[in-house]
Design goal:
The structure holds 2 protein chains of 2 kinds. Chain A is of the alpha+beta class. Chain A has helices at 33-36, 51-56, 66-81; strands at 23-24, 28-30, 89-95, 104-117, 120-130, 136-146. In chain A, strands 1, 2, 3, 4, 5 and 6 form a 6-stranded antiparallel sheet that branches. By secondary structure, chain B is α+β, with helices and mostly antiparallel strands. The mean pLDDT of chain B is 93. Classes of the chains: A alpha+beta, B alpha+beta.
């Protein structure tokens, strides 16, 4: 699916003929506190990277910022919609469960609707991110135009 | 759980000292915000900042590279010609604007929801203005939420790059 240097296809993997019900292939990441606690992410709050502090606040382990799972989901969307996601794309996410350090998170997407728009369609996709036990951590909706 | 972050004694002490330094008196976020409050800050999206963001979420899409090891600063390549910013990056920085950076960070606040529209690709190297306006404070199932509307525009040309609605749960 990739092009030069491992980049996604410029127009993504979804085409105007992609049907409702189509499942997007997601991305898989492990929640690692060395990344969760990096300065640009969760360093300002030790609940995101310090097991001892997290325990003192009642958490089983440090938890990721929800925005990390939004980034994972958006990586999936760029793979599937390419440049179109930067031209009116939308991502709505609810953080419904905490992602604990060490968990492996996979993103998912299913095309729910194709709304006719211009010469093409606005795709509406149900998206979510779950751990290895299929416990959903983040759920939402994404939209992007194809061939509009 | 300690094997998640192996450390020597000096690292442990430095970690405890850092964590202790974060302990500040603060108000619940609910009390810090009044509906209509507007905050705004400018952020320069340097190539290095983009790399720091993308590396931590292991997104190695070369479209986002305005910096590469050995060559360093590069114009980069994407379907828009030059390197661009990951689509959710500016959303990640909204928190720094919502929480007035001149005040202690509010305890017990959790980002629970965002609805983000990407209007245009942001070239790496752009300076953006992130503006947040508190539009609602509401309770739902016994929990308190603060809602903000956000705009992200280019400086100084005013190009609209992103809009967002987001909710913070507060103690």
């Amino acid at each position: 699916m990739t092009t030069k240097d491992g980049a996604p296809p410029a127009d993504g993997l979804i085409t105007r003929d992609t049907p409702v019900g189509h499942e997007l292939e997601g991305v898989k990441k492990q929640a690692q506190i060395q990344l969760m606690g990096s300065r640009l992410w969760g360093r300002f709050n030790p609940n995101h990277w310090d097991p001892e502090y997290a325990r003192s606040t009642g958490l089983q382990a440090p938890i990721q910022t929800g925005e990390m799972s939004s980034a994972y989901i958006s990586e999936m969307l760029v793979n599937h919609f390419g440049k179109a996601f930067f031209l009116g794309g939308r991502l709505e996410c609810k953080y419904i469960g905490s992602t604990l350090a060490g968990e492996v998170i996979t993103t998912y997407g299913v095309v729910r609707e194709k709304q006719p728009k211009g010469d093409g369609f606005r795709f509406v996709v149900d998206v979510w991110a779950s751990n290895e036990d299929d416990e959903k951590k983040t759920v939402g909706t994404a939209e992007a135009d194809v061939d509009v | 759980m300690s094997d998640l972050r192996p450390m020597t004694s000096i690292q442990r002490q430095q970690t405890r000292d850092f964590v202790d330094s974060l302990d500040e008196e603060s108000q619940p976020y609910w009390d810090m915000v009044e509906i209509g409050d507007e905050l705004s800050r400018d952020l320069h999206l340097s190539a290095e900042l983009i790399i720091l963001y993308a590396d931590a979420v292991e997104d190695f899409n070369p479209w986002f590279e305005g910096w590469r090891m050995n060559t360093w600063q590069i114009e980069g390549e994407s379907p828009f010609g030059h390197a661009i910013v990951p689509p959710m990056l500016v959303s990640h920085f909204v928190l720094s604007v919502q929480f007035d950076h001149t005040k202690p960070f509010a305890v017990g606040s959790i980002h629970t929801h965002h609805d983000t529209t990407v209007h245009a690709p942001i070239p790496v190297g752009t300076t953006v203005r992130i503006t947040t306006r508190a539009t609602d404070k509401y309770e739902k199932r016994g929990r308190r939420y603060v809602r903000h509307e956000v705009t992200v525009t280019g400086v100084p040309d005013g190009t609209l790059y992103a809009t967002e609605v987001r909710d913070i749960l507060s103690l």
